[in-house]
Design brief:
The structure is a single chain. The chain is built from five helices and five strands. The chain is an alpha/beta fold. The chain has two domains: 29 residues; 117 residues, Response regulator (Rossmann fold), CATH 3.40.50.2300. It has a five-stranded parallel beta sheet, with helices on both faces. It is rod-shaped and about 100 Å long.
Length: 164
């Protein structure tokens, strides 16, 4: 009779041990790693780059873009660029410049003769937007950036965007 009494006790004890082990394992099980946060929180400021049809493949545009990205990393200003497609004329470029203007860019940086000419034609429509020229022949109130070297372009654009 003694063997029969031990058997149910052993079964109950074993079941209890399994339940306790399962609860402990569940509590100690490592949580999945949180995914790395990939979003950035930007200021309500956007700096926009207007380039010719070569986009960032042109050295002055690449240097200006580098300066804008550095300023963005320092200040959380959003940056974007738009390349003028189609005929490389000031008249065609004006619609691209106006696109950036109606997007309410805080700063528009134009790089090259055609984008700067488009900016010159349309700058009066957007007096509240800071306008910067890299190359071309800008006049007041457009700010000109030193184009003597890629590093001077990068530094000049970074300074303007950082101060926006």
């Amino acid at each position: 009779m003694r063997g029969r009494l031990l058997r149910p006790e052993v079964l109950v004890a074993t079941a209890a041990a399994v339940v306790v082990a399962a609860i402990v394992a569940w509590l100690l099980w490592p949580s999945p790693a949180e995914p790395e946060v990939r979003e950035r929180h930007y200021e309500a400021t956007t700096a926009c780059l207007l380039t010719g049809d070569k986009g960032l493949a042109d050295e002055p545009a690449r240097a200006a873009w580098a300066g804008m990205r550095e300023a963005s990393a320092e200040t959380a200003v959003k940056v974007q660029y738009l390349a003028i497609a189609g005929p490389q004329t000031a008249a065609n470029g004006l619609s691209y410049f106006n696109t950036l203007g109606v997007q309410r860019c805080t700063v528009i940086v134009a790089v090259g003769d055609v984008p700067v000419a488009a900016m010159m034609d349309g700058h009066a429509r957007f007096p509240d937007i800071r306008q910067v020229a890299v190359g071309g022949a800008p006049a007041e109130p457009i700010t000109a950036v030193d184009t003597s070297s890629p590093s001077s372009i990068e530094d000049g654009v970074r300074e303007v965007v950082t101060n926006a």
